[in-house]
Amino acid sequence: MFEKSLYDLIRGLRNHKGTEREYINESIKECRKEIRSNDMDLKSTALMKLTYLEMFGHDMSWAAFNILEVMSSPKYRHKRTAYLAAVQSFRRDTEVLMLAENQLKKDITSPTPTVISLPLIAIPHVINPSMANSILSDLIPRLTHSHPAIRKKTVVTLYRLALVYPETLRPAWPKIKERLLDDNEDASVTAAIVNVVCELGWRRPQDFLPLAPRLFELLVDSNNNWMAIKLIKLVRWPGTLLYITDDSQFATLTPLEPRLIKKLLPPLTKIIRETSAMSLLYECISGIIQGGILEAVEGTTEGEEVAKLCVGKLRGMMVIEGDSNLKYVALLAFEKIVRSHPYLVSQQQDVILECIDDPDISIRMRALDLVVGMVNTDNLTAIVGRLMRQLRNAPIMSATDDSKDDRGRNVGVVPYAESDDSDAEESLRQHEQNSSQPPPLPEDYRISVIRRVLDMCSRDTYSNITDFEWYIDVLVQLVRVSPATRNTSTAEEDGELEHSDDVGRSIGHELRNVAVRVKSVRPEVIDAAQNLVLVDRRDQMFPASGNGGQGVLEYAGWLVGEYATYLTRPEPVMTSLLHSNSLQLPAKTLAVYLQAVPKVFSSMAGNDQISWTPERKTLMSLLMARVIHFLEPLSTHPNIEVQERAVEYLELMRLAAEAASGTATGVNNGDFADPPLLLTQAIPALFSGAELNPVAPGAQRKVPIPEDLDLDTPINANLHSLLTQADTEGFETEEEDDVYAAYSDPITSHTDTQSQTATSASDRLDAPHKEPASYQNAAVEEEYLDPDILARRKADRKERYKDDPFYIDPDADRGSGAVTPLSRIVRDGNREDNPLDIDSIPIMELHLDSTSTPDPRARSPRRHRAAVQITMDETLGPDAPPQHIVQPTPVRAKKNLLEVDSAGLAALSLDEDGTRGRALTLAEQERKAAEEAEMRRALGEVERLRLEMQRASERLQGKEE
């Protein structure tokens, strides 16, 4: 009978295109028959085919006992097939593992090295705690085997046993240590032991400190780059040979052996200068940075040289090599070194900024994290401009552009060869064509870029910003490039800004923060908020598609209400607030709009210097009618905040409308009629008072509680009866009732003196002129700002510098372009109707005897920018330590690739008593002292209880007597 081999199975699978499932099911049936045969060759072939099909996800656990049968064959090729099948299909809970234990022991003690290798390779995949303790006695003698390959595999297998059953490492460690200290040991065995030491060292570094001389010798003398990388990682990890971490505070590092720092610096520096292996170069640089070596030598000449050497090598990895992987790891190293040497990293600004436009999104993210740490006053505009240009020019990534989602390109499995005779390495898919267009950006990257821009600009309370008008334009432009967001629920609306995908809220928060803190640019901020609120400008201020940036409306509505006196167009703002589209906004934004409506109305109707004419009365009546019409349906809104504010302001507007209709207007044209006091004094008094300032987070906790504060006694004991009476009785209908008198008679309280929030003309003239940023940045701003923003900035700049003799107007006629006082005199004097007045030409004194050659050493003083006053957070008294410490959010541990919990190794000491041969660390001394104190307290408690029981017994005996 002809039986199919593994090659026949593969050929048949290729020839049955479209019917693979039926062919595989038929092949599995054939394998079930073949594996029950007494012919060991046929069993081995069937097992080989099942192992191949298992790689495609087909179960073969039913053949576990047959695997043991083939494993017991004396032929090596049969054993190899069986051990491969065991590695593929056996698990730690497989029932036949108890039967396989004897076979594993037998093959481990085989005199043939090739046979010994088979169980050594399979044991790490199938081991369990009970089997580990049983096989240990057979594995330890293999550490002295004559073949280096057997010794190497035994070392690795013992480490896997220690992961499953940590106690097996204690008896095996002396033999492993002996192999490591042997100078004549094979290099492969030494490298395997170094790998094991590296895996164990970061858990209990104190146990491996005696090996430091040998490890240092291997680092200096060995030519094995991979072993050198492992040794450097042993130094690099926090909590290893250089540093040990306390269990209670991972961030607190205590030096364990500081002498190693100076000992390791020369060989690591030599490797950095001489090695051509980029992987080893990066690990050396990372070891110097993460291992604390750079911090230990910081401030010394040697430390500066090492830092410059590392930065120079990292720059070469990014520029010369041109490899994306090297570029990524170089950015990682830059991000670590920027914390201690930011000035050195900022010198590499050109290559780092080039990575921001890299086609690889992961490299962009690394570069983005790096530029946030290196930003300063000088490069903030350039970095933000580059990021803004990227957001503006790059298209939005669609589903077909996502490399993680290939459903649009692939259907099922893509074959790489049509037949057995074709080249298997030739892909049938067409190669992707490189495009000169910028790559599309995913939405999460856009959100990350916008958040980084906001973080860079707002760092240290805007310490890096010199032109706040530019920052306001950047915020408006960020709204226009904001990505679309999903529909947020009420719970998400109340969440933190950094955890929300609506970056519009973060942008709005910055607008509000600038308006509150920087009073000099408050009119510009309110103008931007006004444009955002206006309905007729929504198409210009927000993205053309999607709902991106809509979260900014919540803060824009707050700004136009809180600072309504700064509005240049209050009527359109009120129209936009009362627009029907406002009803479709989220409840939180709608509640803010409701709060802004009476404030804007107060600024429009609260002027008591204008006579109450029929025209004004009609205008105010219509405006109040519109407000009432807008608020009436919102009085039954499902959101409690919206409903409460709508009901309150609805009643207020009804009272105002009643007061306006009952106030007589001026009869004659020249007569002055007082407007209703409800409009000019009562309503404005609700929203006037102390100016809102930023408050420190801990200031509220410092406010003392009044001693006479009683929160238990009700304010009005008859409240329930009053509410019941109000529901049953109607309101008075007389025209001259008490309520009417309260809102019609003049008020003689403090509300008579209306606060003047507007600045007088004399104060504005005497105010110091603010020096804006240089207009030469306009060429760069054109790349990331929209034309309307550029036109407004250009007009403002032209008006500001019209009398500046050093300003060259690009739109002026050809010539000098400078409009100076002298040129104005000459130009006016050339006209026929105004002859030139010679006496009006200014005279300047010239010192001809002085040299005209400037001193090259003399440097012109740097032009100081006008300081911008920024309001800081208000607080009460000195800063006190926080009473409540916010616990960090626990990070979910990553799943171990070996699927084995290695936490038991951290508590395992390789010494018999765990502390022999070394001094106790400070943490261990404190722990030991705490244990002794606890023991003393326990003994004292036991003694106290014993005495009480003794006294109780004596009392009972006394009563009995």
TrEMBL record:
GO terms for biological process: Golgi to vacuole transport; protein targeting to vacuole. The keyword Coiled coil applies. Residues 763-772 have a biased composition (Basic and acidic residues). Residues 398-443, 746-781 are annotated as: Disordered. Residues 20-655 form the Clathrin/coatomer adaptor adaptin-like N-terminal domain. It is found in: Endomembrane system; Golgi apparatus. Residues 928-955 form a coiled coil. Residues 748-762 have a biased composition (Low complexity). GO terms for cellular component: AP-3 adaptor complex; endosome membrane; Golgi apparatus. Gene3D superfamilies: Leucine-rich Repeat Variant (1.25.10.10). InterPro entries: AP3_complex_dsu, ARM-like, ARM-type_fold, Clathrin/coatomer_adapt-like_N. Its main location: membrane. PANTHER family: AP-3 COMPLEX SUBUNIT DELTA-1, DELTA ADAPTIN-RELATED. Part of the AP-3 complex, an adaptor-related complex which is not clathrin-associated. The complex is associated with the Golgi region as well as more peripheral structures. It facilitates the budding of vesicles from the Golgi membrane. Adaptor protein complex 3 (AP-3) is a heterotetramer. Belongs to the adaptor complexes large subunit family. This is AP-3 complex subunit delta.
